[in-house]
Amino acid sequence: MKPCRINGKIFEWILISRRSCFRAGVRYYVRGIDSEGHAANFVETEQIVLYEGAKASFVQTRGSMPFYWSQRPNLKYKPKPVISKTMNHMDGFQRHFDSQLLIYGKQTVLNLVNQKGSEKPLEEEFAKMSSGLNNGMLNYLAFDFHKECSHMRWDRLQILVDAVAETQDEYRWLLEGVLSIFCVSSYFMVNSDGKILTQQRGVFRSNCMDCLDRTNVIQSLLARRSLQSQLQRMGVLNVGQRIEEQAEFEKVYKNAWADNANACAVQYAGTGALKTDFTRTGKRTRWGLLMDGWNSMIRYYKNNFSDGFRQDAIDLFLGNFAVDESEGPTPLRMKKDWKFLTLPIVMLVAFSMCIVSLLLA
């Protein structure tokens, strides 16, 4: 929650992310959906603006690809995703989107996974089921984030923003009876008298593999486009002014979205988000690449050696696992012996010897 100033006008800007308690867990242990259609790492993010009694809101969602797939840790840097061959994918897929359409209205799915390599089968399965559902309320769009933005060409993200601009403008229900002279995006707005001016009729549902790094970048861009329209209609921005030109507010906006990315990522992946240098500064930097490499190393260790304990803790906390005292000592009372540290120590020594052999003749 940030008090902000543009053109001498002070308004409150708020960013809230709400994580679902269904199918909760950590990165490689919880993927896809459960039998009830609940998606892993499902998060609803709402951006709110308050100014002189008027209020505006813009909601987006993210969640794991809604069919039955897994990616269990196996000491490889990137375990191969596996699509279940025994489950009825369409049944779970329909359960998921029946719920989403009931709560949020129309859905535009932005799938940001790679369209080659190990991620390709997942994208193809998602596209096949989206077309198989044959529901006019669901619109599917695939965008190969890494391919389009390769070689630091992050300006190409504008291709996706432009592609969904028309859809974003359609997700509105204008109640004034008169169109505004400003670009009206999909959002909810009520004036200082309590009169509802517009309602949001649909959401963008973004996902990548983890629904963290790539997803957060895209969500921040869509939220900025919506905010541009909101601030103009409230009279905070003058006609022709752009949010990008407001240096003080831009800094607050970018840092808050980067902090949002980190908060979501720490719970699911164990570290802060990747690609936050772009979210904070608007461009990709070499220092950001180095920090991403460091976070990736930490994720590798946690995903393989400590996330199992974290998953157990989450299941215990949410009541998905009940301790039966008649079964003997619980894991909470058992002390870990030296065997739990053996493999991490061996790997650390091996890595150290590799570095030494590279540096010394």
UniProtKB/TrEMBL annotation:
Record-level Gene Ontology MF annotations: phosphatidylinositol-4-phosphate phosphatase activity
Q: InterPro entries in the record, alphabetically?
A: SAC_dom (IPR002013)
Q: Which residues form the SAC domain?
A: 1-270
Please give a single GO biological process term from the UniProt record: phosphatidylinositol dephosphorylation
Gene Ontology CC entries for this record? endoplasmic reticulum
Keywords, ordered alphabetically: Membrane, Transmembrane, Transmembrane helix
Q: Please indicate if the UniProt record lists Lipoprotein as a keyword.
A: no
User: Which Pfam family is one of this chain's hits?
Assistant: Syja_N
Transmembrane stretches in the record are 340-360
- Its protein name is SAC domain-containing protein
Q: Supply the source organism's classification.
A: Eukaryota, Metazoa, Chordata, Craniata, Vertebrata
